[in-house]
């Protein structure tokens, strides 16, 4: 543990809190009053500051724009009934943040500095955390390269910023998903495990094509054979097959999701068997056909659980039971909400309290 992080705080003179409609929040569109910024140069992190949310000035020559040295994280903070504020498992995000940084030749941030930076900005804007059921504060830490240099080489300077967005419940109808067998999100040896900005730019075109074909989401398959399930959009693909939770292992090509890990731990708590193993498209279709696919969903911080309504593969659409009748994901959602909002014992130590 390093010493308390020295953060200069400049508060806004014009809060936008009063004019914000907290009953109609669209994910990622509303930003809080402040943001945290820090710089990296001469081999160290410095200038940690909380300033009013607003535009920043950078050179058009920064390599983040040209070569994609840029990545992000996504975390949520919750307001408890007694007014306490907690951030959900940010230590996991701190670890992943540094994995992404290393893959992109970018500087890491000590875990406790990362945690202190989140706590500080959340504390300043704690009035921005909606208290209504299903609401939370989405935290978006990110880092990008700031050297003005058009050579393809790691930058020597970087910016770290944390933004906050109040968000409402992520209601999603059961998704109509398509198994993608041409485009790929990541390949072995690539950077699929990193929350690297470029991964998302590359996924938009196939996602757009799927939307034009009438689907809500894609299920990515492996880059080599398109035989095995990888992820669902920007969420981890999870299934309940004949009473067992099954999900592909989060190795090289799959983002190691905090929600995925949380769901796995809850399954253990419930006494539900879990298998982290390859899931073939054939197995998925076969189990959907014979009624053994009890549940299928995308797991991620934004939605927690995004239920799959139907799966389209090889020219056929396979329908699943209605989400409200799926025992496992319903129980996960209920249990998780109770923990995150401070209404159930936090036996795993998942809530990082902001004092
Ligand atoms: C962020 C993300 C996830 C989900 O990770 P969480 O930590 O659960 O939010 C899964 N897959 C991809 C590709 C992601 O970007």
TrEMBL record:
InterPro entries: Aminotrans_IV, Aminotransferase-like, B_amino_transII, BCAT-like_C, BCAT-like_N, BCAT_family. CDD domains: BCAT_beta_family (cd01557). It comes from the Bacteria. Keywords: Amino-acid biosynthesis, Aminotransferase, Branched-chain amino acid biosynthesis, Pyridoxal phosphate, Transferase. The modification N6-(pyridoxal phosphate)lysine is found at residue 195. Pathway: Amino-acid biosynthesis; L-isoleucine biosynthesis; L-isoleucine from 2-oxobutanoate: step 4/4; Amino-acid biosynthesis; L-valine biosynthesis; L-valine from pyruvate: step 4/4; Amino-acid biosynthesis; L-leucine biosynthesis; L-leucine from 3-methyl-2-oxobutanoate: step 4/4. GO terms for biological process: isoleucine biosynthetic process; L-leucine biosynthetic process; L-valine biosynthetic process. Pfam families: Aminotran_4. The keyword Transferase applies. Its EC number is 2.6.1.42. Acts on leucine, isoleucine and valine. Belongs to the class-IV pyridoxal-phosphate-dependent aminotransferase family. This is branched-chain-amino-acid transaminase.
